Amino acid sequence: MTFGEYYRQSFRTDIQRFMMSIPADSRNHDYDKTVFTIQYEKLGKDTPHLDVVPLKHRSHFAVALFFTVLVDEVFYTYYRSQYGEFRSLTMYPKFIGNCPGGCNHHFHPRDIFEAINCSSDGQNTYRRPDVSVYESFDQAIEVIKGEVFDFFSKYMTTINPSNFWQKCVNEFPFNKNNV
Fold first, then answer.
1. Structure pTM?
2. pLDDT (tens digit, 9 = 90+) per residue, 112-122?
């Protein structure tokens, strides 16, 4: 399955199952209980939460989650005055640190890739094998770029999709040569 097929056919189901596997007090960690949050540790190898995503989809899931969080953070950072409208249309989750204290900080979405391969013993010996995201990431770039352009041309026409996308590209953790 390509990233595009996964993103269009399975990601919504997988993200819903993943979010529902997290206790409500953790997935709605913000003071505003309509805001969905993912704490770093909920992606880690020691927890069962990512087990709801089939192994064959985990790299696609991690990359789709990265782009979802990235788009939300880029919008909040550069277009804050319009964020309320954007948030009401998307309801994207926030990626935050662990309690106590870290839950008050938003993490960069690139940390998702570290989190899914992290176990508390530092040896990566727990529940799941490491997830490699490089191939999925390369496949995702054009798919997500198309989604971004489509979204802004339909729902928020005051935002220039090219400018927005460039801000996203500037945050990529991997090779930018193929954008």
1. 0.89
2. 998 888 776 65
